[in-house]
């Protein structure tokens, strides 16, 4: 069953409106429907679910790629989705929200830090079927072409089947032309071990650059880390209900003396 | 059973190191152990799980309140936790991480947008028992005194019992001197309906202020929204595994033609 009318697709990202990754995503989505892009005017990696509340936002229509309606926004990736829904679509929600393609992985715990994924989460909060896409290549000139047929297929399935209520998809691609297939996964229980590169400014005052190493102690074959290491595209269904439901009975055994 | 040595407690927030809410939290924690504060040098409300990766950070020891070790950080609430663990505690993790007291509620979906809660989430990712505290009063000069006995009791319970692996607590207080007690809750399925206040700058170019109205269609008596409306302090156990585990079998029925 196909939809009677062409779907409307909102494209967002966190690397900024001029990033090659979003251009690749636009071109795939153009084959599926009417594309509207609302993306940050500058890189917003690591912005997580930040929103702008202490200062105003700009939203400007730009003419970057022929035939695609594109807006550049001064805010965060989540701001972009909020402005798109309210000011661009004026409440007429799009049929799909896709975010990316991110220059770099957003597997495992990175779903929390990632502006790309947070934009997709915000789409899902707005009840729009939403997907975030990321590639294991951090270079600005990364080659996204081998991901495109997978992206098209996953987006078509979501348009056709919808997604379970309150969920979205986190899709990550390995950096290989030989992707073996798609694996439905859970988020690996991995984390960053932070290091801060301490330096002195010209006035001898210290400053710190965040660096870190990704540590994975979760070797489950049902994880996104495992799938990517074995050259599969990983698809993790994500929810924005952060309640640890299993912990509620535990806490109910506590006696609070107040 | 009490711990043989005085616990070490990391205090963070998102309203900034000079906010009255964090001062209140410091004073309660001082009764329980050795307090170390690492907080943003400016308000960081709505920063969610943002981290600073494109620019360096400052971390300065400040002498704000007598007898408490306090650091002011130029980054986000999550940056504060990362710098605290790495540079202040140098890997010797504190026994507890508390965040807040936030000037304003962080119930329901606000757990995602809140810098206060994201700092507590980061504490939990670092395997530190962590709690975020928020009060339903957005004023800078909010009165936090009626929350203090509840905060002390909840923190003592966490120090004594620990928390289930991979979880933390999101505690919200109603703005009343007559708090009826503590309710263990789930996150209500509510959301913000955004509005953007559109204005023209002196050069006649439009700009937008984010505003919005909180809409709750989830009237479950087991939700944090219900508890707060009925003058209970709400305690939601939160997890940072965002996998929608229930959706995995659904997605496994899809046939991807790639």
UniProtKB/TrEMBL annotation, chains A, B:
<keyword id="KW-0479">Metal-binding</keyword>
<dbReference type="Pfam" id="PF01975">
    <property type="entry name" value="SurE"/>
</dbReference>
<dbReference type="InterPro" id="IPR036523">
    <property type="entry name" value="SurE-like_sf"/>
</dbReference>
<feature type="binding site">
    <location>
        <position position="14"/>
    </location>
    <ligand>
        <name>a divalent metal cation</name>
    </ligand>
</feature>
<protein>
    <recommendedName>
        <fullName>5'-nucleotidase SurE</fullName>
        <ecNumber>3.1.3.5</ecNumber>
    </recommendedName>
</protein>
<feature type="binding site">
    <location>
        <position position="45"/>
    </location>
    <ligand>
        <name>a divalent metal cation</name>
    </ligand>
</feature>
<feature type="binding site">
    <location>
        <position position="102"/>
    </location>
    <ligand>
        <name>a divalent metal cation</name>
    </ligand>
</feature>
<feature type="binding site">
    <location>
        <position position="15"/>
    </location>
    <ligand>
        <name>a divalent metal cation</name>
    </ligand>
</feature>
<dbReference type="GO" id="GO:0046872">
    <property type="term" value="F:metal ion binding"/>
</dbReference>
<dbReference type="GO" id="GO:0005737">
    <property type="term" value="C:cytoplasm"/>
</dbReference>
<keyword id="KW-0547">Nucleotide-binding</keyword>
<dbReference type="GO" id="GO:0008253">
    <property type="term" value="F:5'-nucleotidase activity"/>
</dbReference>
<dbReference type="GO" id="GO:0000166">
    <property type="term" value="F:nucleotide binding"/>
</dbReference>
<feature type="domain" description="Survival protein SurE-like phosphatase/nucleotidase">
    <location>
        <begin position="9"/>
        <end position="193"/>
    </location>
</feature>
<comment type="similarity">
    <text>Belongs to the SurE nucleotidase family.</text>
</comment>
<keyword id="KW-0378">Hydrolase</keyword>
<keyword id="KW-0963">Cytoplasm</keyword>
<dbReference type="InterPro" id="IPR002828">
    <property type="entry name" value="SurE-like_Pase/nucleotidase"/>
</dbReference>
<dbReference type="InterPro" id="IPR030048">
    <property type="entry name" value="SurE"/>
</dbReference>
<comment type="function">
    <text>Nucleotidase that shows phosphatase activity on nucleoside 5'-monophosphates.</text>
</comment>
